[in-house]
Backbone:
């Protein structure tokens, strides 16, 4: 089947008036789609499908024409460039009933998964076909793109109406090839899942205060060690540390953009990019989410460079700096290191080699 319930090359358009229109750029809305067809002499109704994670369009919509003949004529534009856009029309017959029936369907629950490691040759049409061939409840797919270049960021989201299919896809589709690469699958986490009341551009969760936490941290006293109380373990050994250091960032990468690359691994507490340092910090709610991010995003291209990841320190964390990533607990016992070292990153710092001695070097860590 095709995207959003539109099986390619299979459905007959006899008697139908509704087309699926896909691979829409993020800025396109109902009025733009309506104006496209109005300028071609067609009066249409448009049902834009919204991404529940960002609030922007989900990459496709449904267009209802005045007659089956008008819809069939519009379908002949498939593959031609959309006026005032750099993308071609992606059109197909919509499955099911008209827009009224589809609006009722859209009110049901949706279940999403995160899909990473997508090659540049993979578009939303290819991605959703792969999942719809296996899962009847697969509804749509959205591949995130760079707002400047329009190029794929290499990851996206696939939505289902069945939680059972979503759970099956998490395991059955892990490592399955889409295009030229095996996919990386994990649970998708909504950006606004945390209890922080503020929201930034595109629905990105924002934290109250600079570098401040959200969720349980924002409602009362911060946890021990978050704002300077000494912790008995360092970042490498502390099972409560959830902060990831992201080095090698391009200067034009924003905190919202950095968040978008990591949100698929789990709920994020905050994202911080100290100005002029070429690095950033991503703090997760769960330790395992941070471990997975370090393991799977190491060397991933963000902006015009590949990032390097390691455990980071939270604000004023006075434990000794640590070492490259490896899974934690059970932690070894480290001697007291006295006063914390000073770092040019202020209250944040990556763990640097040599800041703390290792109790042994038998594992080849350096």
Residues:
């Amino acid at each position: 089947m095709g995207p959003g319930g539109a099986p390619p090359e299979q459905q007959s358009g006899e008697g139908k008036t509704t087309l699926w229109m896909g691979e829409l750029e993020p800025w396109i809305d109902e009025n733009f789609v309506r104006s496209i067809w109005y300028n071609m002499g067609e009066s249409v109704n448009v049902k834009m499908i919204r991404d529940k994670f960002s609030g922007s369009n989900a990459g496709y919509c449904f267009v209802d024409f005045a007659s089956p003949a008008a819809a069939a004529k519009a379908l002949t534009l498939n593959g031609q460039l959309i006026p005032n856009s750099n993308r071609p029309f992606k059109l197909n017959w919509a499955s099911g009933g008209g827009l009224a029936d589809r609006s009722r369907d859209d009110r049901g629950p949706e279940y999403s998964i995160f899909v990473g490691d997508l090659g540049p040759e993979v578009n939303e049409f290819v991605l959703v076909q792969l999942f719809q061939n296996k899962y009847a409840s697969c509804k749509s797919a959205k591949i995130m793109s760079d707002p400047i270049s329009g190029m794929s960021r290499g990851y996206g989201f696939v939505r289902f109406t069945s939680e059972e299919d979503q759970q099956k896809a998490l395991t059955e589709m892990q490592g399955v090839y889409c295009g030229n690469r095996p996919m990386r699958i994990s649970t998708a986490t909504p950006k606004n899942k945390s209890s922080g009341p503020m929201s930034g551009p595109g629905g990105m969760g924002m934290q109250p205060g600079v570098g401040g936490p959200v969720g349980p941290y924002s409602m009362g006293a911060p946890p021990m060690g978050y704002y300077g109380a000494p912790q008995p373990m360092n970042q490498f050994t502390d099972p409560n540390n959830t902060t990831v250091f992201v080095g090698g960032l391009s200067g034009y990468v924003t905190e919202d953009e950095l968040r978008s690359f990591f949100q698929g691994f789990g709920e994020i507490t905050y994202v911080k990019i100290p100005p002029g340092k070429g690095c950033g910090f991503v703090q997760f709610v769960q330790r395992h989410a941070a471990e997975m991010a370090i393991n799977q995003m190491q060397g991933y291209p963000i902006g015009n460079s590949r990032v390097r990841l390691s455990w980071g320190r939270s604000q004023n964390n006075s434990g000794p700096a640590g070492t490259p990533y490896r899974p934690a607990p059970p932690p070894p016992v480290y001697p007291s290191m006295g006063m914390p070292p000073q770092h040019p990153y202020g209250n944040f710092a990556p763990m640097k080699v040599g800041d703390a001695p290792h109790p042994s070097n038998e594992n080849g860590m350096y």
Notes: Helices lie at 30-38, 68-75, 99-106, 124-132, 163-172, 255-262, 287-297. Residues 111-187 form a domain with the Alpha-Beta Plaits fold (CATH 3.30.70.330). Residues 70 and 144 are 32 Å apart (CA to CA). The chain has three domains: 3-102, 111-187, 200-350.
